[in-house]
Each structure stands twice: as structure tokens, then as C-alpha cells.
Amino acid sequence: MFRTARETLRISLSRIRNRQFLDATMAATALVATADGEVTFSELSALDTVLETVQDLQIYDPHIAVDIYRDFADAIVENAEAGRRTAMAAVGKIDRNHEAAELVIRVAVAISKADGELSPLEARAISDICGTLGVPLPSET
Fold it and tell me: How far, in Å, CA of 141 to CA of 123, rounded?
């Protein structure tokens, strides 16, 4: 019983510490997926894959993560300027964690390439995210 309680507490603490990473990842994903005006099935499928494979995101219920993504994406679609500003603010909250920032960029690149092509608007979104995080633009963009 004590072991179960301790494990539950450990998971809860991990969730609290990683919440900014979750928000930043979902915000970056929304910025890239909405950049060209069309969110494709392949981009959403890639998001599901990210949620299943990135260890720091596996501690969250994927439905919660998708809801966070949808909130950012819906805000961008509803009011592009304000929605992007809100999403970029969430991304910026992890700018001091270089490892997390690089992972967010890798996720953004994966989402951008999910439909087989990297549009100039998606490349611009990734560039903006890199600028916010203080991370160099990856060579594959």
C-alpha cells in the first residue's frame, strides 16, 4: 500500500514538473499544424504517435494532451494573432530548459513533415518557435 501511494505521488510530481513541457509541446504542435491553414489527418496521427512515444508525455492521459492541443489550435483558427501569441507564450515557458526546447523542436518538425511536405508557412512557424526558445533552426527545415 505504501509503495502504491509513493508511486502515485511520484507520478503526480512528474506531471506537475512536466506540465510546462506538455503545454509547450501541444502549443508548438498547434502552431505548426495550423500554419498552412489545413490540419491534416497525417498531422493528427503524428501527434498521437508523439504522445505514445515521448517518455515525458506518457505520464499524461492522451485525451488531456489532445484537449490542450485543440485549445491552442482552436484559438489560432479563431483569432490567428492572439492565438499564436498565446501559443508562443506557452512555448516560451520552457526556454531555459535546453533539452526540452530541442525536443519540442523535434516534435514540431515531425508534425510538419507528417503530410509529406514542409510548407513555407510551417517552416516559418518552426523558425519562430526556435527563436522563442533560443534554439538554432534544425538543418532538416
Answer: 6
